[in-house]
Amino acid sequence: NTISVIGLGYIGLPTAAMFASRKKKVIGVDVNQRAVDTINRGEIHIVEPDLDMIVHAAVTEGYLKAVLTPEPADAFLIAVPTPFLPVQMEGDIPQPDLKYIEAAANAIAPMLKKGDLVILESTSPVGATEQMAEWLAAARPDLTFPQAAGDNADVNVAHCPERVLPGHVVRELVENDRVIGGMTAKCSARAVELYKTFVQGECVITNARTAEMAKLTENSCRDVQIAFANELSIICDKLDIDVWELISLANRHPRINILQPGPGVGGHCIAVDPWFIVSKTPNEAKLIHTARKVNDAKPEWVINKVKIAIADFLQANPEKTAKDVTIACYGLAFKPDIDDLRESPALNITKKIAEMHAGKVIAVEPNIKELPVVNTALRLVSFEEAEKMADVHLLLVDHKEFKKESFGGNCLIDTKGIW
Ligand code: SAJ
């Protein structure tokens, strides 16, 4: 049985590699020539612990190859991006753009034959799997699909969302339970059989729409909970209460578990997926929408805190001007102990401060060796240098390297509560 994975990114490549590691023949498809070449050399183009070894073994043993255009297979897994269309006006609700799913469906359609299985893994708005099946049916009028033929369909279709945590993908792919949303009972059964190749967690069966919503619900739940913590941090600041102490006290209640406030919500999922729900049901998804706005507003609140700190510093040191004030930003990644700077509130805040501030801005990020191309005079320094040099210290990420017993600097803004 040959398995084809369409889209060899953060989810597709590890998934392809897991099947190949169980000695299944896997054809990975990606439109990016560089990704295809890198994988065929037995190397990887993304950062994920342990993945390089698995891909290297799979390619050298001949179980995994990457190509630019689809080839025939028995199962097709689609793991392409599901971005949003550009918003027309600030404050508009972003609308999903399914063009990569449509392109993938049209690319695999000519390869389909009776008995094949197509699985959508990309995080998608409710209804996307049915839409994908419509695109497949339109391209292949000679075959039958579940929406018309039910369990007798020639081609089975299911939605099985990925739920792995970046940095722990290899372990979580194997250990996590898997939601299997077939368009019919037979579609689900076929998908379970396929995932059981490497999944040790339970494969729980539901329908496609519920599976789509389950994935969106998980990440929206986390977003709403983080928004609650972020709102608390702003309320406590106003009332002169230590929010970290407050949360640890409240969390002693047996049924309370408040998450941690921070400088905002980053990454590629938590700050994105709730919009799939809000765009579909804007009048009903009030709390989910508000949570998004609360979390998106947090970086501006942090920047304002920095402005106040600069003003306070200048008041205490009247001989100085803004140009003499050095600001240190600790942490640029989107969460602790990783090197991923994409969609990072910490990086965005640091960039904005570097743009607005007349004096020096320095950054500490132990997980990277050089700064990404930013259009500013920002400099990367060591923790010790920053501690000594800066007048205003802004902690943005709770990396393990920053958890010191005592901190030398005076003017502190600690968005993660570790100092
Ligand atoms: N954050 C806080 N406070 C907290 C926890 C997190 O501010 O108490 C922030 C982080 O700093 C970060 C953001 O939230 O900026 C997201 O980090 P995360 O660790 O919550 O999640 P991701 O984006 O790395 O991965 C999530 C996971 N989903 C859930 O935990 C429900 C993962 O299982 C999903 O597979 C992944 O999204 C995905 O691909 O959808």
UniProtKB/TrEMBL annotation:
Start and end residues of each UDP-glucose/GDP-mannose dehydrogenase C-terminal domain: 328-418
Molecular function (Gene Ontology), one example: UDP-N-acetyl-D-mannosamine dehydrogenase activity
Enzyme Commission number: 1.1.1.336
InterPro entries: 6-PGluconate_DH-like_C_sf, NAD(P)-bd_dom_sf, UDP-Glc/GDP-Man, UDP-Glc/GDP-Man_DH_C, UDP-Glc/GDP-Man_DH_C_sf, UDP-Glc/GDP-Man_DH_dimer, UDP-Glc/GDP-Man_DH_N, UDP_ManNAc/GlcNAc_DH
UniProt KW keywords: NAD, Oxidoreductase
Pfam families the UniProt entry points to: UDPG_MGDP_dh (PF00984), UDPG_MGDP_dh_C (PF03720), UDPG_MGDP_dh_N (PF03721)
SMART domains the record matches: UDPG_MGDP_dh_C
Superkingdom of the organism of origin: Bacteria
Family: Belongs to the UDP-glucose/GDP-mannose dehydrogenase family.
Official protein name in the record: UDP-N-acetyl-D-mannosamine dehydrogenase
Organism: Marinomonas rhodophyticola
